[in-house]
Design brief:
Layout: H1 9-19, H2 23-33, H3 38-51, H4 64-78, H5 80-84, H6 86-107, H7 111-120, E1 129-131, H8 140-148, E2 157-159, H9 171-177, H10 179-184, E3 193-197, H11 206-211, H12 227-234, E4 237-244, E5 256-262
Parallel strand pairs: 1-2, 1-3
Antiparallel strand pairs: 3-5, 4-5
Helix pairs in contact: 2-4, 7-8
Length: 264
């Protein structure tokens, strides 16, 4: 989870993902034991402090789990309703967790893996590939570079450079802010394949507005129009394949990964 997020990210994304089915119980525990234990207060302060930092990750709040599980267990034990329906509660929790594991482990965000499997079977020998995608959103070096052959030229795989200390050198940020301007200054003729998230070239819609309310690049989203595809066409690239990535996507990613191939 590299990048910047909304101050509310931990409340609406981080906590539900980390605590999953325990999220309602977490809310109940904080409500019931807020002034009876130091742990609920510490949890609130921790979330507030981390919410003030622009860079957010799930792992930052993992340390809260071992502290809160005993508190949540105690809240569950002393509640008469839960005690009467303990078996039903455990069964429901197991089923929901099982569905979550299957969805997150097999379906969710599988596009980068499927895209690399597709590239591994390419008829072009050692193709030159441009992953026109956000920071750390593709697993090319681990699932394509070393898996296909050890003789692949590392320079044939192009990624957007991410520099968190020098904004001027951050290619991913420049691409997010103005995709059309960025690729207009690139020599795309050097590549055989170009991959990018479907959100990059889709016109602005009410659905993209809802998904982008927390994005730092919201004001510049109007620049992501179909003109992006015209630039690819001018460099002899045509649409080749669309691969499913994720139903719920983040910021500028998208539901699919589009693969364009250069015509000879």
């Amino acid at each position: 989870m590299f990048g910047e997020h909304s101050p509310y990210w931990y409340l609406f994304v981080g906590i539900p993902v980390v605590f999953t089915t325990m999220t309602p119980l977490l809310v109940y525990t904080i409500y019931k034991r807020l002034f009876k234990s130091v742990i609920p207060i510490s949890t609130i302060l921790t979330i507030c402090v981390y919410s003030g930092i622009s860079h957010k990750e799930y792992r930052f709040i993992y340390a809260l789990l071992p502290l809160l599980i005993p508190e949540m267990s105690n809240s569950l034990y002393i509640n008469k309703f839960f005690k009467r329906n303990l078996i039903r509660f455990l069964y429901a929790t197991f089923i929901v967790n099982l569905i979550t594991i299957i969805f997150a482990g097999i379906i969710h965000q599988r596009g980068s893996l499927d895209a690399n499997r597709f590239l591994m079977n390419s008829k072009i020998k050692n193709p030159r590939i441009f992953f026109l995608m956000q920071c750390y959103s593709n697993t090319g070096y681990s699932h394509y570079h070393y898996t296909r052959t050890e003789n692949v030229d590392r320079n044939r795989l192009k990624y957007l450079y991410c520099d968190i200390f020098n904004v001027d050198n951050n290619e991913s940020r420049k691409f997010n802010e103005n995709p059309i301007k960025y690729i207009s200054n690139m020599n795309l003729s050097n590549y055989d394949y170009i991959l990018f998230f479907s959100k990059t070239a889709e016109p602005l819609s009410i659905f993209s507005i809802i998904n982008e309310l927390h994005s730092i690049n919201y004001k510049k989203l109007k620049q992501k129009t179909k003109n992006f595809l015209k630039i690819l066409t001018n460099h002899n690239f045509v649409f080749h394949k669309r691969i499913y990535h994720s139903y719920f996507y983040e910021q500028d990613h998208g539901n699919f990964i589009d693969i364009f191939i250069k015509l000879n």
